[in-house]
Amino acid sequence: MGVPVPGESAERGTAVVIGGGLAGLLAAWALRGYAERIVIVERDRYPEGPVFRSGVPQARHAHLLLEAGHRALDELMPGAREELLAAGAVRVPMSGVRWLSAAGWLAKYESEVAFLSCTRPLLDHTVLRRVRAEPSVRWLENTDVVGLLGTPRELTGVQVRARGDARARVRELRAEMVVDASGRTSSVPSWLARLGCPPTPEERVDAGVSYASRMYHRPAGADPGFDVLYLQTKAPDAPRLGVVLPVEDGRWIASVGSMRGAQAEPGAAGFDRQLRLLRDPSLHELLAAAEPAGAVRGFWPGPGVRRHYERRAPRGLVVIGDAVCTFNPVYGQGITVSALGARALRAAAERHGGIGHRTAHTARRGIAAAADTAWLLSSSEDVRFPTTTGGPAGLGVRAQHRYLDRVIRRATVDPGVCKTLHEVMSMVAAPTALMRPAVLGAVLRGGGSGRPASP
Fold first, then answer.
1. Rounded to whole angstroms, what are the CA distances from 445 to 114, 400, 437, 450?
2. What pLDDT is recorded for position 330?
3. Residue 232 and residue 223: Cα distance in Å, rounded?
4. 329: cis peptide before it, omega within 30°?
5. First to last CA, the chain
6. Residues 6+ apart with CB under 8 A from 277
7. N or C end: fewer C-beta atoms under 10 angstroms in the chain?
């Protein structure tokens, strides 16, 4: 455990976590040993095993833990990575991804950087089982948080009520720390306004993304020559993408996504049409030989939103996961950023030795820093499409686009540049890695000349 900073008392009272999804579970785990009680307030009732639940509508779509994400998860929960692999999660090295970039197929090379691919229920259940065994965690399932307690300067708890019963008695839960992990639909901004807090600064970018997914049985003996196939969008004339990922029980999960104006029609016919409209026929051909293992599921996640609670928030508030920063899901960053945010929360508790106000302040800053790279990459890519609203603009973004275009062109023929690009996308290297002398020299010398890698 950490040593408190001089001059601060190490508060070890109650932490309330709003939302018991993955971000909330990781936040609760991060606080163990630093709070006497951790109360998770969850709207749903948890299923007994790794099955889909209504409270996580995005769970039926492709999910992955980038290299940075499963490193953070295993740091928080030693052995969790091995548990996932033993349960059927698949480790996919970046060299096992056949990636059709905007400039062509990326170069082939051997990679040590990998991501974990599995269904969201398997990931959630693995983490839930670990948190269930923690004696300092209490559970309020089938319960809604309906408001905050406190003042514009300091939160002192939350108001809760049994779910689905507007006449039920509202109870107060007092707490030294309130962690909002309630996801994209968080009500905390409106509850803060009700307390008289000024609006939290935020950024928005909306590419109008939608996507549809379907599970398939992987054909016996199938060896397409890659682990994952990813067909990327190409602005402005190719606003659709497709991906197939291996998951547990010998299945594939395939997702097709689109930007505003190119969304899929519902059902199997709409899904098949989207596959046919992709830039390359390889995904459609691959799935034509596979047997569907479920219905087509659609999802409209809404805009990407980044709320800057590190700039303005009452004492005692921490916001994590999608409640603080939501991304266009096509970049696969969300659960990795949640794991990095939980690690930042843990580091703050260790630094200050408890869950006092300084812990919350430090955690807000750490969680914001954990989202920086992902937000930069996703928001700046979204604005390439003319139908996108909001997001960064100006000469700096256009210069960034021009240089990144040259990097990607070079990555189709240069394994070293491709390796660095993958490290940045996997969030184990900062975007500045693309300006290292070796990469910069290769990009400026080659600029993408040469024959792109074959599929």
1. 29, 18, 12, 12
2. 81
3. 22
4. no
5. 50
6. 240, 262
7. N
- For the CA atoms of 245, 204, 239, 328, the dihedral, rounded to the nearest 10 degrees, stands at 0
Spatial neighbors of 129 by CB under 8 A, at least 6 apart, are none
Helix (H, G, I), strand (E, B) or coil at 3: coil
pLDDT at 106 > cutoff 60: yes
Q: How far is CA 443 from CA 235, 357, 413, 439, 453, in A?
A: 21, 47, 11, 6, 16
The larger pLDDT score, comparing residue 248 to residue 452, is at 248
Phi, psi of 286 (to 5 degrees): -60, -45
Find, among 428, 329, 319, 331, the residue nearest to 377 by Cα: 331
Phi/psi-derived region of residue 424, left when phi > 0, alpha when psi is between -120 and 50, beta in every other case: alpha
Percent of the chain's residues with pLDDT above 70: 94
Tokens of 354: 């408890």
> Which helix (H) or strand (E) is 359 found in, with range?
helix 357-382
Retrieve residue 214's tokens. Answer: 């379907």
pLDDT over 90 at 222, yes or no: no
pLDDT digits (tens, 9 = 90+) for 47-81: 888 877 766 666 677 889 999 999 999 999 999 99
Helices 22-31/120-132 angle, 10° precision: 30
pTM of structure: 0.93
C-alpha 337/C-alpha 320 separation (Å) is 9
Question: What's the rounded Cα separation, in Å, for the pair 29 and 346?
Answer: 8
Instruction: Give tens-digit pLDDT for 122-179.
Output: 999 999 999 999 999 999 999 999 999 999 999 999 999 999 887 889 999 999 999 9
**CA trace torsion 232, 235, 238, 243 (10° rounding):** 10
